[in-house]
Amino acid sequence: MRHLSLGLALVAALTACAWERTNRLGPIAPWPPGQSAEKAPSVALRIFGTMRFEGTPGDVTPAELGVWRDAALLAYGESQLFASVAPTWDPREIVVEISVNKSTGPKKAIPLILGSLLYRQTDIEMRTYFRRADGTLLRRIELSEAIRTISALADPRRESEDSLRAILYDLHRATLSQAVRAGVLRLDAAGEAEAEDRS
Amino acid sequence: MRGSSSMASRASKGVRAAAVLWTAVLCSACGVPTAGVGFVFSPSVEEPTRVPRVLWLERVRIEQPVLPEQDLIETAFTYNFARVLRQKKTFQAVKIESGAAAPDDWILQLRIERSMQRGKVPALFYIATPLTLGLYSALGKLQQLDFEMAGRFEVRDGSGKRIGSGEAMHTATLDVYQKNLTNAVSFFLDERTRFLDQVLEQVLSATGDQGS
User: Could you tell me how many helices (H) and strands (E) chain B has, helices first?
Assistant: First the structure.
């Protein structure tokens, strides 16, 4: 029985996945970014995006979309920049359109003395469009980060939900920090509108 | 050397495609559809602008099936639909419902009334594969993929006057064999794009020459 438990523990250790990130974002400080606006605006979040696995486009599942939404709600809620945050189509003072494009690359191997470690890199690109309620584009912010999911034996086909949540959360935080620095979230100051793109 | 590397690459693609199909087979065996209603579409071919108007896209409603996270899925469907329309460049600009449309602009409302994407493994697969020691899986039909999407649309101008309305429906079936595994991977995405092409064609036909 003891040998069986040890064996199972060994198999679990070998097939478990670890993850590391590429740290393209750098430190995000201060957080919450803080904004001394007299009246904080309400915000509507609209989340969409695409997924690719080894170059082949695939469906974004409801579960995946749920993770994207939860990460956005957490970061936007914690930022203390908004009077209310909701993933809704109802009109709000600011509409934030968040496009997440996730692309998982091919399996690669890191050679070791005995065997090799397998890993895949998932690149996550986030484009955020801040708009006024009338649809005018205030600012477009584009950031990206990548996760490497590593495993000794099993094929690391997808990143863990925890790693995805953590990276999306940080991407939102970095986006909001940039938006605050650019002054696009102040309702009083009529922020300059950006030119619309067609991509 | 080059030959062997290309063979290795082909073999690796085959293994990958087989893994994807096997997952689909397992899902089907458990009664799980191989894809959700979906909202990602294949890249479409760009065409010159045919209608010199701004098209506003209202949030697409998906009536059947009722899905978990329906709001999120409808939002994502709408934005990805807009992306496809922008790539096609049929209209001068495509905007999502936010802000006010000018009287000359058009507003498109699309309701998906039926959406079905599923994979079925034929009973013969389960019988013939063990009997032929796996040979059937190399030569016989592995799975049948079915796609159906139907919807209704209405186009209004910025003042609320109805310009046109209509329906679009697209169905397709693919019998999956070892030799066409690659097609199976992109089947649902391609068919969804074809459905949207149909919607666009129907919109243009229903609105006649009022576009120019």
Answer: 5, 6
Distance from CA of B155 to the nearest CA of A (A): 20
Structure tokens at B63: 């009536």
In terms of CA atoms, which chain A residue is nearest residue B96? Answer: A135
**3-class secondary-structure state, position A112:** coil
Quick check: A182 contacting B, CB < 8 Å?
no
Question: How far does A14 lie from chain B, in Å, by closest CA?
Answer: 21
- Both tokens of residue A93? 């003072």
- The pTM (predicted TM-score) of the whole model is 0.76
**DSSP letter (8 states) at residue B17:** H
3-state secondary structure of A43: strand
Q: What tokens were used for A146? A: 């990548």
Q: Does residue A131 belong to the interface with chain B, where contact is any CB pair within 8 Å?
A: yes
ipTM: 0.75
pLDDT at residue B28 is higher than 60: no
Torsion sign across C-alpha atoms A49, A53, A55, A61: negative
pLDDT per position as a tens digit, B77-90: 898 888 888 888 88
